[in-house]
Amino acid sequence: MEFTSLLDTSLDLNAKPALRIFDDAQILKEEVQSDFIQLGRNVAVKEERGALMEELKRVSAENIELTELLTVICENYNELRKQVTEYTSKNPALKRKAESSINNANTNHGINGSDKGSSSDEDSCKKPREEHLKTPISRVHVRTEASDLSLVVKDGYQWRKYGQKVTRGNPSPRAYFKCCFAPTCPVKKKVQRSIDDQSILVATYEGEHNHPQPSKLESTSGSNRCMTLGTAPTSVSSSRSTITLDLTKPKQTTDSARNSNRKIDSPEFKQYLVEQMASILTKDPNFKASLAAAISGKFLQQNKA
DNA sequence: CGGCTTTGACCTGCGC
DNA sequence: GCGCAGGTCAAAGCCG
Fold this sequence. Notes:
This is WRKY domain-containing protein. By secondary structure, the protein is of the alpha+beta class. The chain has helices spanning 2-90, 95-109, 121-124, 129-134, 216-220, 250-265, 267-283, 285-304, and strands at 137-143, 159-166, 173-179, 188-193, 200-206, 227-228, 234-237, 242-245.
């Protein structure tokens, strides 16, 4: 009886260290697993970051190419226009037809011509000729959602609507706006839906702003995704984002395009771009969800292996 | 209550 | 001179 109890005790004494080793091993295993999970996360984040940087590089390169292309288009357009002007001055009979063609080109391609002297029939029939020559007129086509029935073109300026009319030949009404940022600003804007495509708004700008663009400060703060390069806008936009380009002053435009090229190449700009991208991505819940899915997917994949 | 939009009335220029 | 169409005005209504 005493012997068996002694044996039990000795067995007990031997059993305790074995359990402790087992526990230690268990803890170690958990730690290793935890480290492994962390490692998996780090790898996933690194891969994601690498992919984003690649994407950023690609977009930057594309941006530079597009800027260069735009510069070339502007130069070609101005050269062609100059030739047309010279040609029509030598052939007055062709002048009217050529002016009409230029206006159509402006309208169709959204290139703002700062139309001093050349104008549509609609505009010319209403205003005295000399006044008309002084007033730059530009047209802008803006694509909107078909369901969006408002005649609002977001171009960075503040406008006050002062009238609306149904015009002949177009069932959709024409809205009349005045620039209300500065009381002395003479710029007016007419907005009407295109007859051909109801989803396209045709905005006609008359005059030049004599004040800075109110939304410029907002756009540089990074709170929106509007890219602004000038004052009087020619824009191609969707309901979600807007790209506004100043093509009213061809020389300035090409210079500014070159300047922007130089700026794009600079490390400061790249740094700014990265910060903006990071800011936009981190604010985007979809991105966060995608990142989480990628990490968890990677982790599950490694657990299987 | 102030600012903005709407909308009918009015003005102006052009063609016949 | 008249009619038409585009452009503007201004009172009323709406909204934050």
